[in-house]
Amino acid sequence: MIQQKIHKKYKILKNEDINHHYTINDIEVYFPYELYDCQYNYMLSVLNALKKRENAILESPTGTGKTLCLLCASISYLVDILEKKGNFSESINITESNKNTSFDFKENENSPKKVVSDFPKIIYASRTHSQLKQVIKELKNVYFIKNNEKYKLLTTILGSRDQLCVHNINYNYKGTLLNNMCKRTRRSGECMYHNGLKYLDKLKHLFTTPMDVETLNEIGKGNSIGQNIHFCPFYATREIQNECHVILLPYNYLFEENTRKILKLNLENSIIIIDEGHNIENVAEEAVSFKIKDSDLSFFLDSIKATLTVLDKVNDIDKEAKDKINVDELFILNRSINALITWLNNERLEKNERKKIKEKHKTYEGKQIFEIFKNNNINITKENFEKFNTLLSSMIELLNKYINDFKLSQMDINNVNRYISTIDNIRKSFGILFSDIVNNCIEYFQLYINEEKVSYSDCADKVYDKMKKFSKNKTKIEYDKHNYTMCKNISLLCFSATASLCGILKEKVNSIIVTSGTLSPIEPFSRQLSGKYFSFKHILENDHVIKSHQLFVGCMTHYNNQILLSTYENRTNENYIKALGNCIFDIIVCIPYGVLIFFSSYSSMTETVNAWKKFQIFDKINTYKTIFIEPNKASDLKEILNNYENIIKKKKKGAILMGVCRGKISEGIDFKDDCCRGVIICGLPYGNVYDSKIIFKKEFLDNFNYEISDDNNSSIIPSKGNKWYNEEAMRSINQSIGRVIRHKNDYGAIFFLDSRFSNNQRIREISKWVRTHFRIYRDIEQIQSDIDKFFELFKGLNDQSVEENKKNSIYNKEKDEEKGAIKEIGKNFQDCYVKNERTNKNKHEIPQNKFIFNPTKKMKNQPKILSMIQNITKGKNQEKDIYVDSKEQNIFETKEDNINMKLDNAKSLIASFREILSKNIYDKFFELIKETKKKNNENKYEILINRILELIIQNFVESNKQQNESVNENNSNVILNDIMNEKQLIDVWRILIKLINNFFPVQEKEKCFFILQKKFKEKTNDFDELEKYVYNYRLEKIEII
């Protein structure tokens, strides 16, 4: 009966044949599925940020439809603006008439002007093109993109020449060589694809359908149905971007100012979406950093001489090339680089053992860089750099022309290309140094000089042999017997992503939205990105779409009295290695199918596996589940993943894949369903303590003073060095554990096998959707029992999927009915909406079911969700086999039961306070409780717990005075051990814990517990009871370990 009622209710609301229409923040949003509350919250945050032209940082776990929500919300906002302006059809005229804008690439190729559109373009950036390919799949589901015949929104993807060149030369050349050959082929008119660009206006409609790089290349080659025109995807995408509404590109195209200029990428009024945002801190810092070797500088001098030689050769042939290069400027540049080399050679480098940096080095603050240039006659400044930049570009153009116009051997071509790449490297490096980004945010930069050992092949020691007129055959670099030499490097280090993001914001963008499935700890991360120049006004740490019964989270602190602690020192501890291996075995025997195990580093994984093989633990685990190990080479990963999935999906057996946090399997791979039913974390993945960049960044963060402006959220404190170091490790942990849940019907378990994860601060840094389920264990039998109960709930579902393949119609019918009920689990967001009978149409004339948010209805339907769960597992003992939260159990309690329980707890607590307090102090305590109830201020419970502790101290101080014992007159400095015996101290602690647990609001419990814990640490000596209590985030109460 229950199942039939539920099915009837969903039948009213559910219609999969239509797009669902919602009004969120006065914007009509079309979503291909029925909304969940977490999806609604996410789109609401996006639209709030876009409408207010503010920045947002949003975390939403994998499986919540984050990408689709982001695209639907932002494109709906874009369409709303286009409609309000009334220029929707005029601005997107893509008919094949003569009025269309023609693609005149010869005219626009060197034009520095950017085309400003009258609508906010959506620029969607992700880490790689493979990740953008997944975004394109979701983009095709967006209503306004799917209905391209009506809305005609244009989309494109930007890529490099290596990726988008469809000419045959792409098979033989890459990088600089490909650029040269491309220019040569175009100028000779031999590239049929570039020649076909003049017909592209007739194919402009193709860009109304989102295309990845591979699809675009196939269409460019003329392989699409009904199209015989060939065109170059590389140049076509660069030109059409000015008219596109959605542009997809990798991170580095967005963060590198030089790349944006080359692409003529206009960011004004654009919506910048940065997906997979957990990676951007490092990428944004690297975008404004550089490294130059002393051998590069020496080779650059040779390239100046080579340029003079080439000038001499083409003097009579090409007067245009001669006019572009000023020989006097070349000599000034030559003197400046010589001065830089002299200064670098004179710098005395030293080792600093205190900082743990093994190599000799020296550092300068960012603001000292320009003084160094001025004091050492390095005559390159921000004011004259544009002139030198033009000179360097002309040198590259001349050498390219020399390769194309003169018949040279392949060796000669390779040598000249090395000159070109060296000039280009110097040009890019100096371009960063004299950019507005560095000039405006100089406090985030540091000049670093170091000495390192490099091989002969890395030292640029070969000189082009036909240019002896201006150079020697060999440089004076000395090598040891292994062909290694010492090389000095000069590097510009950036210590904050703020610098790159400021470079984007200065172009007057609409909003920057940074999003990912794993940004926690999110508030310090937002401040790390924004610095003192701007702020993220909208911060969201979203819930998961799954229900509480679909996730199990446990932390094991000990195994058979051996503490689990994966520190560097413990790698050689045989007792720990054995305990870890046996603990993993005892856990994986309870987990069906696939399990991922993550170690802190490759060296840790290798040493642990070798030790397990020695103790025969590896064979024991491998016998139960086949073990696969993440390979060193990325090319070998595909085969291992195929073998791993084959055992699980085809053979229906268990398997283990071992990897490393921040490694190849920790992100970007979709381990759906049985491929990952459990994730085990062994240790904390801290960065290399000897890495100079990490050492200097920690030092920088310790010494940097943030000036918090009124615009910034002053409650968010920027992280200091060690705190940032810990947060980076936790962020990579959160990324790894995200492998376990990949969609709304998925389920799995997460295990932390390290006692450090039981720390309350560490728990708060775990993603919200995980920490609310957190449980701490010390007994292996207890966690095994709980794991068995958890997976028992889903055991019928796995059997069902096998049974569905059978042809027995009776069983099929039974299973289909159960499957219908399964799908209904977690779909209760629809119950939060009621149908709007006033209209069945919207302004886009689409018949829709429109729902209005009704949160009260959601709470009433919670028991029905539990009924569905029980219905699936009919025939089983629900009390033992169903894993439900205590909150859900309380739903079945009557109101009278709750009242009686609270009365009993209150009577017990009053009796306890009467027992320890004098009558006078007890009266004050009672008055304090009554006053607190009347107050409305936010921190009234924090004040209450402090005042109660003061009254207790006063009580025992007065009691000791009456007994003529010497006590401190100042109650604030009293040590509790001096005025109470051990039993009294424990009783007071437990009474206060009971008070917080039973009578404080849920949102105040955690905060007040930590305040109480802090007070007892300050006012007690060797009070062991403190370590026994932790705050359980899932149950939302304090409990004893």
From TrEMBL:
<dbReference type="InterPro" id="IPR006554">
    <property type="entry name" value="Helicase-like_DEXD_c2"/>
</dbReference>
<dbReference type="InterPro" id="IPR006555">
    <property type="entry name" value="ATP-dep_Helicase_C"/>
</dbReference>
<keyword id="KW-0238">DNA-binding</keyword>
<keyword id="KW-0004">4Fe-4S</keyword>
<keyword id="KW-0347">Helicase</keyword>
<dbReference type="GO" id="GO:0045910">
    <property type="term" value="P:negative regulation of DNA recombination"/>
</dbReference>
<protein>
    <submittedName>
        <fullName>DNA repair helicase, putative</fullName>
    </submittedName>
</protein>
<dbReference type="GO" id="GO:0051539">
    <property type="term" value="F:4 iron, 4 sulfur cluster binding"/>
</dbReference>
<dbReference type="GO" id="GO:1904430">
    <property type="term" value="P:negative regulation of t-circle formation"/>
</dbReference>
<dbReference type="Pfam" id="PF06733">
    <property type="entry name" value="DEAD_2"/>
</dbReference>
<keyword id="KW-0067">ATP-binding</keyword>
<dbReference type="InterPro" id="IPR014013">
    <property type="entry name" value="Helic_SF1/SF2_ATP-bd_DinG/Rad3"/>
</dbReference>
<dbReference type="InterPro" id="IPR013020">
    <property type="entry name" value="Rad3/Chl1-like"/>
</dbReference>
<dbReference type="InterPro" id="IPR045028">
    <property type="entry name" value="DinG/Rad3-like"/>
</dbReference>
<keyword id="KW-0378">Hydrolase</keyword>
<dbReference type="InterPro" id="IPR027417">
    <property type="entry name" value="P-loop_NTPase"/>
</dbReference>
<keyword id="KW-0547">Nucleotide-binding</keyword>
<feature type="domain" description="Helicase ATP-binding">
    <location>
        <begin position="25"/>
        <end position="328"/>
    </location>
</feature>
<keyword id="KW-0411">Iron-sulfur</keyword>
<keyword id="KW-0234">DNA repair</keyword>
<dbReference type="GO" id="GO:0090657">
    <property type="term" value="P:telomeric loop disassembly"/>
</dbReference>
<dbReference type="GO" id="GO:0005634">
    <property type="term" value="C:nucleus"/>
</dbReference>
<dbReference type="GO" id="GO:0010569">
    <property type="term" value="P:regulation of double-strand break repair via homologous recombination"/>
</dbReference>
<keyword id="KW-0408">Iron</keyword>
<keyword id="KW-0227">DNA damage</keyword>
<dbReference type="GO" id="GO:0006281">
    <property type="term" value="P:DNA repair"/>
</dbReference>
<keyword id="KW-0413">Isomerase</keyword>
<keyword id="KW-0539">Nucleus</keyword>
<dbReference type="InterPro" id="IPR010614">
    <property type="entry name" value="RAD3-like_helicase_DEAD"/>
</dbReference>
<dbReference type="GO" id="GO:0016818">
    <property type="term" value="F:hydrolase activity, acting on acid anhydrides, in phosphorus-containing anhydrides"/>
</dbReference>
<dbReference type="GO" id="GO:0003678">
    <property type="term" value="F:DNA helicase activity"/>
</dbReference>
<dbReference type="Pfam" id="PF13307">
    <property type="entry name" value="Helicase_C_2"/>
</dbReference>
<dbReference type="GO" id="GO:0003677">
    <property type="term" value="F:DNA binding"/>
</dbReference>
<dbReference type="GO" id="GO:0070182">
    <property type="term" value="F:DNA polymerase binding"/>
</dbReference>
<dbReference type="GO" id="GO:0046872">
    <property type="term" value="F:metal ion binding"/>
</dbReference>
<keyword id="KW-0479">Metal-binding</keyword>
<dbReference type="GO" id="GO:0005524">
    <property type="term" value="F:ATP binding"/>
</dbReference>
